[in-house]
Amino acid sequence: MLLNIFYVKVQASHYICHPCWQRADRAAKQYTRPSTSNSTARGSTQLKCVNCGINVTRMKRHILNDEIILHHIQQRVAPKMVTASDYICDACHLLFHNDNPVSEDYDSVGHRNVCIKCGYSVRGLRHYKVLNENHEHILSVVQNWIYPQEVQSADVICHRCFQKAEADFRTNALLPYNTSAQSEIIILPNYRRAPHTHARCIFPSCNSKSQQLVPDVIRVRLFSDHKYYISPGCRICRFHLESQSWSLLFEADNTQHSFSATQIEDFCELLKQNKNEDFENI
Ligand SMILES: [Zn+2]
Ligand SMILES: [Zn+2]
Ligand SMILES: [Zn+2]
Ligand SMILES: [Zn+2]
Questions:
Q1: What ipTM was estimated for this complex?
Q2: What pLDDT was estimated at residue 36?
Q3: Which of 15, 56, 85, 156 has the fewest CB atoms within 10 Å, measured from its CB?
Q4: Ligand 4 is a single-atom ion; what residues have CB below 5 A from it?
């Protein structure tokens, strides 16, 4: 929670009055808004479980004020940020809140088949995979809706939200390029990148919770030789680092073509480093 007193070190003994707490609470929610709701929604904030994405507006929910659960969920959903004023659903709460040591399964979610936009279950309803080459046009719309979260290969969208995405796509196509709401995310068809997760190894279906960052030399080489981008902070396990079987990465179905402005700025850093290496080799 970001209080307006950053020059004073906050201590456990400090107090805050209720109106100020509410203000800080709202500020914290605002801060996490892209992860929990449609950032263009005015006033109608959706409450979603930050772990599985189910809409908890009319559901039993738990505020994330348990430090241990918060920590584990933060690791699971990084780089999306969660705060103590976010909510999780009862099913997710049960998964993390048991007397056993916290579940080691990083794929533990209370609900599956949840629409990535509205957070309602699509079970038994018409729905689509977001990553589907037959409707690539909606990908950038959906990606912007859920930013900084990223579309994963298993993500689904309900029919209603799909229609909304198509409508947004058509509206944006009519806007002059620079005023487009889509300008935060850019699709580069000739460049690929690894999913931006800090929780596990970047290789597809490798669940290793390695803490090893992908070394810069490798980021530079894959970018300059293969147009494959790995953002800083991505992890790799020892096995995959040693095996060097990069083609597995390039062919993975979780490969993304959408880039944020920050990532494109980082391209320049990689190119600079690449040049320096060339000079050193002379
Ligand atoms: Zn006050
Ligand atoms: Zn949940
Ligand atoms: Zn939906
Ligand atoms: Zn791995």
A1: 0.53
A2: 45
A3: 15
A4: 201, 203, 206, 208, 237, 240
Mean pLDDT of 66-72: 87
SS3 per residue for the chain: CCCCCCCCCCCCCCCCCHHHHHHHHHHHHHHCHHHHCCCCCCCCCCCEECCCCCECCCCCEEECCCHHHHHHHHHHHCCCCCCCCCEEEHHHHHHHCCCCCCCCCCCCCCCCCEECCCCCECCCCCEEECCCHHHHHHHHHHHHHHCCCCCCCCCEEEHHHHHHHHHHHHHHHHCCHHHCHHHHEEECCCCEECCCCCCCECCCCCCCCCCCECCHHHHHHHHHHHCEECCCCCECCHHHHHHCCCHHHHHCCCCECEEEHHHHHHHHHHHHHHHHHHHHHC
> pLDDT tens for residues 180-234?
444 577 888 889 998 877 778 888 888 787 778 899 889 999 999 999 999 888 8
Q: Ligand 4 centre and the CA of 207: distance in Å?
A: 7
139-148, 149-158, 182-191: range with lowest mean pLDDT: 182-191
